[in-house]
Structure formats: C-alpha cells, structure tokens
Design a protein that fits this description.
Layout lengths: L6 E5 L2 E5 L1 H4 L6 E5 L4 E4 L14 E4 L17 E4 L3 H5 L1 H6 L5 H13 L10 E3 L4 E3 L4 E6 L8 E6 L3 E5 L17 H13 L4 E4 L5 E3 L1 H25 L6 H7 L12 H18 L3 E5 L2 E4 L1
Parallel strand pairs: 4-5, 5-6, 6-7, 11-12
Antiparallel strand pairs: 1-2, 2-3, 3-4, 8-9, 9-10, 10-11, 12-13, 14-15
Helix pairs in contact: 7-8
C-alpha cells in the first residue's frame, strides 16, 4: 500500500505524527516522545512505513494492525500489555483474535502481512498497568484501559500532561468491542477511568486528534458513551417480541446496512450477545425460552 507520510503536531514535548485523512483507518496517529536519555514511539502506524523517525523503544497500545503497521521499521525493544502480548508476537494469533470463519481468518492473515506489513515479533515483552518508562526528564506511564482488546492501554506523558487514549477514539462510530477478547463491561470501566485522569491534552488514535482540556474531553466522552446507550435502546425496542441472537445480528446494532464483509456477522453476534448479557443482568431483558430474548 502506498503511504503519504504524516504531519507533525507539537503538544509541549510530545509530537503527534498525524496520519493521512486525520488518522482514519487504515491509518492511525502515532506519538513520538523525546527525553534527555531516550526517545520512544507509541503505535507506529502505516504512515511511518516509509519515513519512520528514530526511536530507542516502541510502545504498542494494543495488538491491532493499524497500530503496528510501521513496527517493522524498528529493531529496538518493543513492549505491549501482557494480555495483548501473544497477538503482537504472532501474526496468526492476531488474525485469530478477530474470531472470523477459517477461510476469512486465513485471508485476514494475508491482509495483515501484505497490506499492513505485520510480522511476528517474538522479541516483544509485556508490561502491566502502572509501568513507567523514564526517558530522562519525561516519563510515560501505562494506563490499562481494556475492553477494545484485553490489553488495550493508554499512556500518560509527564510533565506535559498528555494522555494518549488510543482507540477510545471518540468517533461517531462509537466504542468497538467486537473481537473475541473484547469486553463491553471492561470498556465501560475504562471510559470511567479516563474521566478520572486530569490531563491538559487527550490524544486519540483516529480522526478526532487531540482534545485540549478535561471539560471538553468529558463532553466528547459523553457522546462516545451515548453510542453504547443508543445500541441498548435499539435492542430494547427490537425485543418487543422474542428474538434470537441471529435475528438481532441481522437487525444490526453496529454496522450500517450497506457495510459488507466476513467480519460483519461475527462482530454483530458478539456485540449483541454482550448487550443481551448486560441487560439480562439488569433485569431489562428476559430469556423467554432457550436462545430467545424479550424486553421486560
């Protein structure tokens, strides 16, 4: 895939490498952090394939292709959360994590290799929540924000007050929790945690870029959360009579009707099941017979 490079935007001592089309998929926004002793890159994206800036180490927010497409440009230590480590070490594990039928999984692995340059990184090592990378005069602290993937993380960069929230990206599409290892419950907890972290700047991986100020970030986070609430409302309305997960998947909570691909039905099934489980726990939905659900 031809890439058009990135543009640089400075926020204190933090440089955001903005991908083409404001970092819209298949691109993403990467982050370059310089200290007096070391420099690190967060989420080397597709736009870095032909023009990767030098770095002493790499941090990966989570093991999805658009966040590691430029990783092959770096022969330096690479770290991600221990719960995403297997997928970063193995392209086959990454492909399997999308939970697609066998033929589609094989095609996905080929796409990861050819379109996103994903290679196995058996040398990658894991970190946990709260790990600190001291670059000399500047630190990067891991903030575990699971839900999108089990190991999805943000990074708090000090003293600049810059919180990179990766795929808590505030887009109108809303939170994505459709992988095998995703969790709606964890995603909602991560959104609450983001509110508790006061920062000057909040950087996203896609399209919305950098938001200045906790108040504005909170407002946009409210809208992001609202997408989940609308999915709940759509489901409750649809369950005015008993429905199966397959029927809900056909109705679609996430993708618009024109979107096609082998990923659509598996994602719709998993997300429907996650909403159903939560709403059953809340007493808003009942299973009236095996595999059929209705709003109370």
């Amino acid at each position: 895939m031809h890439t058009t490079g990135y543009t640089e935007a400075e926020y204190g001592g933090v440089t955001v490498l903005v991908g083409p089309e404001r970092g819209a998929y298949p691109y993403a926004n990467s982050v370059l952090v310089r200290g007096t002793a070391e420099t690190l890159i967060i989420d080397p994206s597709l736009s870095l394939v032909e023009s990767a800036p030098p770095a002493d180490l790499v941090l990966v927010s989570h093991a999805h292709e658009d966040h590691v497409a430029g990783l092959g440009q770096y022969g330096v230590p690479v770290h991600t959360h221990e719960k995403d480590l297997a997928a970063l070490r193995s392209r086959a594990v990454m492909a399997a994590g999308y939970g697609l039928p066998p033929d589609a999984t094989e095609q996905t692995e080929t796409m990861l290799r050819d379109r996103f340059h994903v290679r196995d990184r058996p040398d990658a090592t894991g970190f946990t929540d709260g790990a600190v990378f001291d670059l000399g005069g500047r630190t990067v602290t891991v903030v575990h924000l699971p839900g999108h993937t089990a190991g999805h993380c943000g990074f708090l960069i000090e003293p600049d007050g810059f919180l990179f929230v990766a795929d808590i990206d505030l887009t109108s599409f809303g939170p994505f929790y459709g992988d095998v290892g995703s969790s709606l419950t964890d995603f909602e907890a991560s959104l609450r945690r983001c509110r508790e972290i006061g920062a000057r700047w909040y950087g996203t991986a896609h399209q919305k870029g950098v938001i200045e100020g906790a108040e504005e970030f909170g407002r946009r986070l409210d809208a992001f959360v609202g997408v989940v609430e609308r999915r709940d409302a759509t489901l409750l309305t649809y369950l005015d009579e008993p429905r199966t997960v397959e029927e809900i998947a056909e109705r679609r909570l996430v993708y618009r009707p024109h979107v096609e691909g082998p990923h659509v039905r598996p994602v719709e099934r998993r997300i429907a099941a996650r909403h159903l489980s939560r709403l059953v726990d809340r007493g808003m939905i009942v299973e009236v017979e095996a595999g059929r659900f209705r709003a109370t």
